[in-house]
Design goal:
alpha/beta; Rossmann fold; 43% helix; 15% strand; binds NADP nicotinamide-adenine-dinucleotide phosphate; Oxidoreductase; NAD(P)-bd_dom_sf; SDR_fam; oxidoreductase; oxidoreductase activity, acting on the CH-OH group of donors, NAD or NADP as acceptor
Length: 266
C-alpha cells in the first residue's frame, strides 16, 4: 500500500489513520486491523501505558514502526489541539476513526444523574465534533474519510438508555448532516452503528465497575459481536475507492434483532 504522507504530491495515496478510543475495545482492534492492512496508524486515547503497549505489540508484529500514539482527552480543547498538532507535524492524514465513546449509567429519565448525561454528551458528541472539526481540512487534502462508530442506540432508543441513546442519535445526526454539507467536497463520511459488542471495559464503565452487572449484559447470548468484527467493517469501508462512500453500516450479532429482542440460551 502506498504511503505518501510526508510529501506534497500524491497525498491522496497517504494511508495514515487517526483512531480515537484506541486504548481498548473496538479502537484497539481497529488499530491492529488497519496496521495489518498496510496503514500507518496514530492511536489516540488518555491512557499512555495502554497506547504504548499496543504500539509496541503491533510494531513488533509488523517489523516496523507503523503505529505511533497521541495521548489526549477529546473533551479538553487544549489537549485535543496539542494531539492534532503532533499528528499533523508528522504527516498527512487519510482517515479519522472516531471510536472514543462511553455509556454512563442506565437510570430512567425520571431519576437519571445529570453528570452521567453531561459526561456522555461531552465525550460522544462534543468530543467527536471537536476532533472532527480539527482534522477535516487535512482529511480533505488527502481525499480522506471521517468515520464515526455510533451505535444502534442511535437508531432505536430503549428504557434506561435515554442519555446514551440521545448522545448516539446526536452523533449519527452529526455524521449525516456533515455528509450533506460536504457533498461536492473531497471527503467521505461513514457511520458504523454496531449492536451488542462484547468488549472488556464498555459495560464495566457503564455500571461503575460492577462486574456482575456488566457480565449480565452478555449472559447467555451466543456469539455477541467482537471488537474485531467492527474493526473489519472499518477496514472494509476504508478500503473502497475514495469516491465510494459507505454511508452507513448497521451491524449486529445474529442473536440480536433489536436491543430489546435478544436471544439468550439461559
Ligand atoms: N461495546 C458495545 O457494545 C458498543 C456497541 C455500539 C457502539 N459502541 C461504541 O463503540 C465505541 C467504542 O466502544 P468499546 O466497546 O470499544 O468501549 P471501550 O473499550 O470502553 O473504549 C472506549 C475508548 O474511548 C477512550 N476514551 C474515553 N474517554 C476518552 C476521552 N475523554 N478522550 C479520549 N479517549 C477517550 C478510552 O480510552 P481512555 O480511557 O484511555 O481515554 C477507550 O479507548 C464507543 O463510542 C461506543 O459507544 C460500543
Amino acid at each position: 500500500m502506498e504511503n505518501n504522507c510526508n510529501t506534497e504530491s500524491n497525498v491522496k495515496n497517504c494511508h495514515r489513520a487517526v483512531v480515537t478510543g484506541a486504548s481498548s475495545g473496538i479502537g484497539a482492534a481497529t488499530v491492529r486491523t488497519l496496521a495489518a492492512d498496510g496503514w500507518q496508524v496514530v492511536a489516540l486515547a488518555r491512557r499512555e501505558e495502554k497506547l504504548r503497549a499496543l504500539a509496541d505489540e503491533v510494531n513488533a508484529e509488523q517489523g516496523s514502526d507503523v503505529v505511533t500514539y497521541a495521548v489526549a482527552d477529546i473533551t479538553d480543547e487544549a489537549s485535543t489541539q496539542a494531539a492534532v498538532d503532533q499528528v499533523l507535524a508528522a504527516g498527512e492524514v487519510k482517515a479519522l476513526v472516531n471510536c472514543a465513546g462511553a455509556a454512563f449509567g442506565k437510570d430512567p429519565v425520571a431519576t437519571a444523574n445529570l453528570d452521567d448525561w453531561r459526561g456522555m454528551y461531552e465525550l460522544n458528541v462534543i468530543g467527536t465534533l471537536r476532533i472532527t472539526q480539527k482534522l477535516l481540512p487535512a482529511l480533505k487534502r488527502t481525499e480522506g474519510t471521517v468515520l464515526v462508530i455510533s451505535s444502534t442506540a442511535g437508531i432505536e432508543p430503549y428504557e434506561g438508555g435515554a442519555g446514551y441513546c440521545a448522545s448516539k442519535f446526536a452523533e449519527r445526526v452529526m455524521a449525516r448532516v456533515l455528509r450533506l454539507e460536504q457533498v461536492g467536497e473531497p471527503v467521505r463520511i461513514v457511520d458504523i452503528s454496531p449492536g451488542m459488542v462484547q468488549t472488556e471495559e464498555f459495560s464495566l464503565k457503564r455500571f461503575g465497575g460492577d462486574a456482575d452487572r456488566a457480565a449480565s449484559v452478555y449472559a447467555g447470548v451466543p456469539n455477541p459481536l467482537k471488537a474485531e468484527d467492527i474493526a473489519e467493517c472499518v477496514r472494509w469501508a476504508l478500503a473502497q475507492p475514495d469516491t465510494v462512500d459507505i454511508d452507513s453500516i448497521v451491524v449486529r450479532p445474529r442473536a440480536e434483532g433489536s436491543y430489546t429482542k435478544v436471544f439468550r440460551t439461559a
